[in-house]
Design goal:
This protein has twelve helices and 35 strands. GO terms for molecular function: mannosyl-glycoprotein endo-beta-N-acetylglucosaminidase activity.
Amino acid sequence: MRELLRAYFCRRTLVSIYNLFFTLSRKLLTSFPLSLLMPKSNDDDVAESEAVPLLDLAKPSLPISFPIKALQDLKSRSYFDSFHFQFNRSTVPLRRDSDCLPNRPRVLVCHDMKGGYVDDKWVQGCENEAGFAIWHWYLMDIFVYFSHSLVTIPPPCWTNTAHRHGVKVLGTFITEWDEGKATCKEMLATKESAQMYAERLAELATALGFDGWLINIENDIDEEQIPNMKEFVSHLKKVLHLSTPGALVIWYDSVTVRGNLQWQDQLTELNKPFFDLCDGIFMNYTWKESYPNLSAEVAGDRKFDVYMGIDVFGRGSFGGGQWTVNAALDLLKRNNVSAAIFAPGWVYETAQPPNFHTAQNKRRWILLVCMCFLSRWWSLVEKSWGIVQTYPQVLPFYSDFNQGFGYHVSLDGRQLSDAPWYNISCQSLQPLLEFNEDNKDIIQVTVDAREASFNGGGNIVFRGKLKGDAYFTTRLFKPHLQLSSSPITISYSVKSDETSNLGILLSFSSPSLETKSILVAPEDPIRRFDDMSLQCLTTSVQTVSEWTVHEASLVMDGHTLTEISAFCYRPENSTKSAEFVALLGHISVKDHVQNQQNPEILLPASSWVIEAHNVELVPGNSSSKILRVKLEWRQKDLEESAFTRYNVYAENVKSTDLRPRKVLEKPKSETVLLGIAHVPAYYVAELVVESDVKAVRFMVQACAEDASLGKLDEALNLLVDLEGLSVNHD
């Protein structure tokens, strides 16, 4: 009993203090219902109190993600009037096979990172390459974005990349303490008001493209309003399931059917009525060893919908969380219930670097250490729970191993920018790299954003010792691709010297469940390895900048591609003992017939419409000016674009000749990559133009799923004439 009270009071005290501060800060903002405080910088060396002025969300500015903090704003639908609304839509659909949750114990991961909306709030990305990211999507089924605001809407970057990996994304609806009780009293005043607010939440999820809500009522409720709370939950589930098949409503174990805030830590008669109305329950994390089994018995055939909470910070959580999180996971797996991992950002938040001389070195050290520690921590989850997501499952398949941050941006082997960046929406399908804590492997395998990239800012680096005829293999992906009689083409890019070779090893399963492996490599090394018995497919080779692109085609009718691995080896008769170093820039698998029937990337510029809105010219430094403009484009005769990614460029036009550029005409000046859009719109906020610049030409290059690009000279483009614009001295 004393242990239970200690955990209860510890949590209640901490959350009360937090919410006291939160409530006071809310009161300071009551006169600005459409405003948000935005930090000047997310660098650790900048005081949190240094913030830019309040931002009017109705006016054009750099697109941001933000929560809804007041019930009135939810009711009035003011979010949809925000300038930022259209930028916050997720455009990557959930993988087709992920609509229904698997009939097995599942893993839910609940984001809780410094209160939410940190670097991830910048929809078009920011310059903090050390921002928090997750790339172990193959270890989870559901991702919840959490903060202590009333309506926590997931930034689209999380939904885009989670959907790409087959993971569902939920927002959070939370009420807390005295303010929360008042909110619930208003929301649940009548059955009709409960239904109306449920419909508002369903509308947000459907319009923005995420998959449902975690409902967390952390305050007492008047018992006579419990029927309306049940109506709120059941109506939300009903409306969501109609508008978004496969959507989820998950209840947090907090308030009971008697209206008391009383965490149960297990499924009981006090919280089961809410469980019966929704798609699952997230149990509070101070449960005891016997609770998972007891909860499974109460849930019956819905035991997989019981998600037992685990606080990674360890606050009263079974097993202590942190580096012993596997203790709780192992127990849950044995009891055949699901797990809800809360705050995996603990690894990131608690990393303490040494006292380096410069902030830049400190930031880079933090990034490297956190990446290593994150991989090590997630390896505990994998060892305990195993891989729960396998991908790719459809063609075309493409990955350049981009983790959503980096130090540069490349395109087809050419570096376009050397500026640091962070944009999780850019994360491509992530490899299922194996973490080797003992470092026994002769080759170390890492993703290192500091090294060169073929596309984006990612790669896989293979580095170590490899002598004579030794070879090294490691898992990259666990696909489930059923192949037809149509040929498939495998291509991959490598940067290495003449002493280090890299091939791709493909594993197949036949209809009779026989296994077969084929090595795709620039030469046939198999005869040199006595313990290898497999076919080798020699690639064609093309040099692009410092990269070598390998390509080969094959037919595996009726087979299923089950694993993609890297194969490291030395060239024949190599006598050098130099370190083995090879960079894998990308890998893709395409279906010939599908590729020929998919001409979307060849759409001419004439099939698009592009417009400039909110054009503004303001004074800059000296004689320069700053151009601000919102670009919007669409495909003619289509309501929704078939693309989910666009490269946006600009070029200065200094000539007085402002005629539209002819197709295939070369740019007259340097073309600069401004950024990447994931909706058919982009806001240019601070484009500096010198006094001799007469116009700016913007170009939008659509990117297909397999990373195919149209030629930039043929891209959709728009000329903005500066000479007719008046300078706004704001």
